Structure prediction request, 653 residues.
Amino acid sequence: MGWSRRILVTAGLATVAAGATLGLGRFSYAPMPDRADLLNPDRYPIQTAFDVLGRRVSRGEADRLNATEAGRKELSAASGAVAIDPAMVERGRQAFYQETFGNEVFLTDVMGMLDGGLTPTQVALAVAKLGGQGTTNLQVALARDVRIGERTYRTGELVPTGLDVPKGGAFIIGIKTFSDRGHLRMGITCALCHAAVDPGTGKVVEGAPNTDLNAGLLMALAKNSSAYFMHASVPEADAKPAAEPEHTGSTGTGPALPDAEAVEAATKVQVASWPPGSFDSSADRVTNPTSIPSSFSAHGEPYSWSGREAVGPFAGLSSLNNNVHAANSDTTQLAAAAPWLFGMDAETYLGIVLRGAATESFRYRPGGTWTPSEVLRSVDPTPAAPGLNSYAVLPTYPATNYVTDNGLFTSVPGEPVNHANNAMSAFQNLLHPPAAKRHSATVQAGRAVFEKAGCGGCHSGPALTNHRIIPAAEIGTEPTRARAGAKMEARLSAPSLFATDTPFPLPADPVIVPVPLAGDTLAQVQLAWGQGGTDGGYKVPNLVGLAWTAPYLHDSGVAVGPDPATQLGVPGTLARGIAPDPSNSLRSLVDRDLRAKVVAANKASDTARIARVTGEGHAYWADAGTGVSRRDQDALIAYLLSIDTLTEPAATP
Prediction:
């Protein structure tokens, strides 16, 4: 489809949003770029035939195992084995760009992403105005005034969304649009956060983090930001109910709730503080967003910044993919765990989430005849599972399970349980960034500095990580996120999952596969979750694709713009719409004098303090204080920016 025709389609969607067309029937669409529209179309070759609960099995080993009964059992679905082939990878790519697992219902009908400051019409018009040129940061005019703290965003003001539209395209990468008999919904896919448009070419980089995605501000502009209060520091949710019956529920059935306006206002301030390119995925009632990681995931286990996604298929990568939709894109599923996670009963929790729902049928009305859970059941598109998304439910739900936060696996009807998440893992493990520009002599010198400075002590192996988790006190970064899983220890079940050939919807008696976890692995997992008497920790990240992942550290705090004299920290870069410069930001990672300035800039910002962005920690220096000259520091940075594939070719996925 040519871009001029795509523009017309986009304009048509604006008309749909206004309710003028497609009033009957159903329609959905999410873009998936052609290989010709990618800046990194090349992938690692498929060398892993099976994944068995995180163990890679080569084609040769698979042939040997299939020659014996015991080997065939090891490679069976009942043992948790996942077969990897081109069809599996292609399904993973399709799911990466187009699978929402039903989150459009929560995002649209509960949170009201289309009913706040931004509307489908304004978004479609913003895309149409690009004229096919594409953008890394779609500017959308507000449809109405929205107050966030002391700031009022005015009608017509252009908002930097960080949404990406490729050159020649007319749709936003990672957004899936649904029209259901005139009711428009918006869902998100993994590509929203883990694919990015290259500003130079307008092409898509598969696996690169969307480093300016303004997810927090987009949530703050929604009609019902309170639906995400559990991901933010909102003490107002614990406040005594207001006196008015419409807030207390005292005239009818239902819980006594805190003041709606206070909770909504506080939630908007907290989520709006997230730096662009970050997201708060921990429902611990603490504002602690982390940088969106890349999906250059081969040999990068464990996954997530704390390393808590570490066991099960693909060494935890499938767990990470699953929890994005099983724990983060539908907060209604947390109601059963609210007593031990949030200290509130399930009805109070759901009352706060649903009280401001954008769609009337989803809205809980204090003083009415239905409780919040009854309202949810009346509109739930997936009545066989908790929450609104499409879930396969372990018998241990809602207990924490180190393979899944809550015993839920997002799944697609008609294919095996968790299949799309496993397929995305197989796809992601083949991705690597575009080839880096390099000067071979400088890069070789930089590698020598890397080893001399001791970086290889932690950053070793094919992806330059030793796969270890470092205690928060030792690594020295802001510790809040490391403790985010501590409360989940109150309800903990043995790690398990469904056999990988289990159909969805589930049969009456599905096969459950236990996931072994003992010894050092258990100790590392407990550290990652902040459990077992630990204070939590952060993983040693892999270094493939650093040129695409600035800013650095889990809190996005190590950020420096093209001008290192004035563009320091999140306040001097992301908050001003300035992309962090990878070279300057890496210098601040290893140079203590520049880092001190970055940390000072972050500490001077009220917004950064709300989001707990400091840029502190990882005090491993390669600077004048350790005898590294500026020339050698330059070479080290050149080497780090040159890492565009696994360093050991024989270890490719």
Remarks:
- Residues 3-40+97-216 form one domain.
